[in-house]
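Continuing from the previous page...

OK, I double-checked the sequence for Nuclear transport factor 2 family protein against my notes and this is the correct one:
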Amino acid sequence: MSARTDVEAVEEANTAFYEAMERGDFDGISELWLDAEGGDDISCVHPGWPVLSGRGEVLRSYALIMSHTEYIQFFLTDVRVSVAGDTAVVTCTENILSGGPAEEAGELGPLVGQLVVATNVFRRTPDGWRIWSHHGSPVLAESDEEQDDESLS
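Thanks. Re-ran it with the corrected sequence; updated structure tokens here:
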């Protein structure tokens, strides 16, 4: 494969990961993570969580998140992909809109926005690019623009 084709394939795998999360598709998430060979090496850090290691622990975390999230949507910005041999690194900003269970039947719970910077590491397998590691970290600092706006008030 050419370098450009690898980058496109990694971008597609990364997009599939976030789309599966939005759909609450546990099987889709499971297929995207390394399994069998390399499955014990996988790791995941959700914002505010400790490091999770091994396929079982990582996939349980996604099952837990999906079971407690009624709605989630990711708007990815600042996406950068680097490929070196059989390893790829994607960095991005996850602009997340999510909602928990509704207080009344038939209604969506309150929506919350969150900004997370993420690093997704992929490994090439015979079945395509699979996630080796995900690390999400909340953005707590204000941007320079927000600080400038506040100083003017």
